[in-house]
Amino acid sequence: MSEPIHFQPTTGFAERARAAAGDPALRRGFRGAMDFLQAKRLAQFPDAGDLATLRDLGAAIRRHALENLPQLLEQLEAKLVANGVQVHWAETPAQANAIVLDIAHRIDAKRMVKGKSMVSEEVGLNHAMEAAGIEAMETDMGEYIVQLAGEGPSHIIMPAIHKTKQQIAELFAARLPGVEYTENVDELIRIGREVLRRKFAAADIGLSGVNFAAADTGTLCLVENEGNGRMCTTVPRVHIAITGIEKVIARLDHVPLLNTLLPRSATGQAVETYQNFISGPRQPDELDGPDEVHLILLDNGRSQAHADLQLRATLQCIRCGACMNHCPVYARIGGHAYGTTYPGPIGAIISPHLLGIGATAALATASTLCGACNEVCPVRIPITEILIRLRNEAQARPAAVGALRGAGEARSALVSTIFRAWAAVYSHPALYRLVTWAMSRGRGLTPRTQGAWTGIRTPLIPARKRLRDLLAERRRQ
Amino acid sequence: MTAMTARDNILARLRRSPAGAPAPLPDVGAWFAARRVDDHEVLIERFKTHIRAARAEVHDTDAATWPELLLNLAAAKGLRTLLVGKGTRHGAALAARPQHAVSIIAYSQPAANWCDELFDGIDAAVTTARSAIADTGSLILWPDAQEPRLMSLVPPVHFVLLDARAIHADLHAAMTAENWAAGMPTNALVISGPSKTADIQQTLAYGAHGPREVIVLLCREGEAS
Fold first, then answer.
1. Complex ipTM more than 0.90, yes or no
2. Homologous superfamily assigned to B39-219
3. Smallest Cβ distance to A57: which of B28, B188, B207?
4. Nearest 10 degrees: Cα torsion A267, A209, A300, A247
């Protein structure tokens, strides 16, 4: 099965979250960025009725794709192959990396430039390339900054959102030869542009993700603002696109609708600078473009989510990041605390399929279930319902048939005993009467220290009189 | 061999998944159609407003005078080299202009043969746009053998010739009117202004990897080329 490559087990989640929440600079940075992004998104959707219709349409496009997933994947593959694109399938991160390495070895590649791809982060592609002696260079400005700092992205759309311009200025001055310290953002971007321009022309392979794959025409749609994605998919002689099996949609003419939702939800932009539609390799008379185009379709646990009618909605995601931008937990702890490739609410519901429920059980509890994520999701994923389901799965009885990977691994005898007792009390009226009577009369015995609850709150103590006692008194009066 | 097995395994698992609630294809076209206006002058104004908001320049011109306008703009910006597509009518029209400070260079060989010059020695390029989009202020380009993909990406300044009659209301209208589903080119592009990034502390900066400037020459009468 798939192996987590550079993933921090979520057993340390509480410690990392506490450390992040106690870091004033990080708190200020994320709070400011989240407020900014929330306001920008809201300004792009002035009409609530129109937004509701758009979200219905977006959800319908994605649900149709998931209901017809195997057929659409076969159609996509047939069209792409007819267009001259080579299609590969990978069940695990290791298989995906092996496919890239096979291609790299065949063409004797030394250098790879990368457009932004969260799936490449998911499979740990950079590590696999470096281990094989192939330079893998991130070219999205945010990804370039976090790679230079030896970190991972803390947000799926804005990878370096946790860094201040002062930190980036120090990083550039320390790591790039001949670069002076400057906090001027235009100048910092100009420096990045010059460094990376040399890399595009020297690279053998350009790697990218995919935003939508249209099955009817065999077209890969990539959106971006910087132009590095276009560089990676045009300049090197081989282009490798990697994406999850859920990214296919039935029709090319549905891309405009999804692209109405995606940039507005993500960054509050009406449109991205570049919508890049790739349908094949360079033709004999063309003067640029890659000689080979490859598409790697990755499962890595997605088929497990697909097999469950409730969890299937997880795969509707178009990776806009609006759920994390509006999450009160993400806004306070940032992306790194989660320890997974995909942070925030979407990370909490997709990661259990990629890494198993046991390794990610803490993530489903990192939510107040306030539902802000549900309200902003452009494709109407019922995120909080799925979080509750995953909390239950983490405590499930072991070895249930058709269980999710890792189900029951976080089962605790204490927790399950408490909930069993709770269920018994609440489903037997006589027992309920007895227990509540005993608790109210014995309230003096309630412990004053109640674990994490009393760390920052006053203890929970039953009332002197139950509601039923008060009602009985009123009837007697 | 592994690849075949992975494919079969993935598809087999997906086929075993239970069928969910009916999920018919939605009528996306109706949503776009309900918001459209018919007045072409309104579309032209919308296009100009939106692409200018994304920091592109737009100049009204016509089939006869655009070469002079372009060369004047290039001179004013201090551009020394201008890349044109090989064998294009507009490339010929520019080359035919007497006495100008900009040297016209044709994209006439595979990119790999002249990468250094292409990346470092070209100040600007001029291409046609196939059409445009009013709603988002976007240009549609279908690069081909005459006007390759890198012309609209690598040089720091991109001049675009656009026939005002080819402005569609939205991308869905363009795809439908031009029947994209019947056959896609190797690469189709929808470009909405100069390259930009906000990856450093949400501060917007232009000219990230692509052109710093996009300059639209909007031809109001006659063909653009």
1. yes
2. NagB/RpiA/CoA transferase-like (3.40.50.10420)
3. B28
4. 70
